[in-house]
């Protein structure tokens, strides 16, 4: 079956508003005529049970960042703030941070360290008291005015164990020294941090109908991992798995974001029970990982070959979208992120991705052409 691609501003096409990830911008996108809800289809994709189309986070999801859902002192990096100059803030662990405009992200403020020696973490680190932030007001507003039943609700909770260790110690070098030299203290810190994350997860589930939880924990440079498989096994694996297990005990899915060439850690992430991986494309051969591990774990990617800041014709964009579906969609276990600043190209990308992936799965699953 061939599916329609309604043209931009076609008066017969249904539309809806969606928020662009990492911004406060709302855009008009096509309201897709789907045979089942995006949430039902996402579950089929996550469990590799014959999705009808490949989900994309722009049209099928609600995406919430931790900083955007709390009222109170700044918790974490504020991606929706339209900063034009670098600025400093203190995160909710008391870590001095600097938002770097040129990098589009936050890092430890140079020359500062919350903890000089990880063996002192119990004396120095003050774990956030969740009662100091108002999460309920934003949740009530979202559920009343924004939430659309049937869409996937993803909440990104920010840093995992390694990122939090690096944060409190003031940098990657200090964090790696601690992993290598002070294993027992690091493990104790991780265990306490996991208690905090579990408390936060429970709070989110009390306020939202969560379907997907994402945590960020960068484990490597673009050459290789920061630490060895032995360190993964002795210090990182079990605390991270506790978080994954807790999320999944709530009936939701778990996605692990990690930058760097973490290829050798993918089997560990499978054993942890992660449902999806969000990896750095230029550091990891994700198509090869899909071929090797696609039956065991899912992948969330961008559109293959799309470079930030480059303008593509409709024909070029269509070619890249089809190549992405052909590369990653086999058997399910895949959803995409579509970023496109031009409203017409965004419309074209969403409609083409949906229609072509439906056609792909019709062929894969043996549905008759009509």
Summarize the structure.
38% of the residues lie in helices and 16% in strands.
Radius of gyration computed on alpha carbons: 21 Å
* Share of residues in strands: 15-25%
| Average pLDDT for all residues | 94
- Could you give the order of the helices and strands? EEHEEEEHHEHHHEHEHEHEHEH
CATH fold annotation: TIM Barrel
The general outline is globular
> Assembly type of the shown chains?
single chain
**Major sheet: size, sense and barrel closure?**
7 strands, parallel
What features would you highlight for this structure?
single chain, 370 residues, alpha/beta, TIM Barrel, seven-stranded parallel sheet, three-stranded antiparallel sheet, 11 helices
Q: Can you walk through the features of this model?
A:
- The protein is of the alpha/beta class.
- The chain has eleven helices and twelve strands.
- It has helices spanning 38-46, 121-124, 136-145, 161-169, 172-181, 183-207, 229-249, 266-272, 286-293, 314-328, 343-364; strands spanning 15-19, 26-30, 61-65, 87-90, 96-100, 105-108, 152-159, 212-216, 253-258, 276-279, 298-301, 334-336.
- The longest helix has 25 residues, at 183-207.
């Amino acid at each position: 079956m061939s599916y329609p691609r309604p043209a931009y501003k076609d008066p017969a096409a249904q539309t809806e508003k969606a928020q662009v990830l990492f911004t406060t911008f709302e855009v008009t996108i096509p309201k897709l005529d789907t045979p089942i809800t995006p949430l039902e289809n996402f579950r089929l994709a996550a469990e590799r049970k014959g999705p009808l189309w490949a989900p994309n986070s722009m049209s099928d999801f609600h995406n919430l960042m931790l900083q955007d859902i709390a009222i109170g002192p700044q918790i974490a990096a504020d991606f929706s703030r339209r900063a034009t100059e670098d600025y400093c803030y203190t995160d909710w662990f008391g870590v001095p941070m600097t938002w770097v405009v040129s990098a589009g992200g936050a890092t430890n403020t140079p020359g500062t360290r919350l903890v000089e020696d990880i063996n002192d973490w119990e004396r120095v680190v003050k774990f956030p008291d969740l009662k100091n932030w108002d999460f309920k007001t934003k949740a009530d507003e979202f559920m009343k005015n924004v939430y659309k039943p049937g869409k996937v609700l993803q909440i990104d909770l920010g840093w995992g164990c390694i990122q939090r260790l690096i944060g409190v110690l003031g940098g990657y070098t200090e964090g790696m020294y601690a992993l290598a030299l002070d294993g027992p203290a690091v493990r104790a810190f991780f265990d306490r941090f996991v208690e905090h994350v579990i408390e936060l997860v429970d709070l989110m589930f009390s306020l939202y109908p969560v379907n997907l939880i994402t945590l960020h924990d960068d484990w490597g440079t673009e050459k290789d991992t920061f630490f060895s498989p032995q360190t993964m096994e002795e210090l990182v694996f079990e605390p991270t798995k506790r978080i994954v297990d807790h999320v999944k005990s709530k009936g939701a899915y778990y996605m692990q974001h990690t930058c760097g060439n973490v290829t050798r850690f993918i089997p560990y992430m499978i054993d942890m029970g992660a449902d999806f991986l969000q990896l750095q494309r230029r550091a990891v051969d994700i198509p090869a990982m899909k071929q090797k591990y696609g039956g065991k774990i899912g992948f969330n990617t961008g559109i293959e070959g799309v470079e930030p800041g480059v303008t593509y014709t409709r024909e070029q964009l269509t070619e890249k979208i089809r190549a992405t579906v052909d590369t990653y969609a086999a058997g399910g276990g895949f959803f995409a992120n579509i970023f496109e600043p031009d409203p017409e190209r965004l419309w074209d990308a969403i409609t083409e991705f949906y229609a072509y992936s439906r056609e792909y799965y019709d062929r894969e699953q043996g549905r008759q052409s009509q």
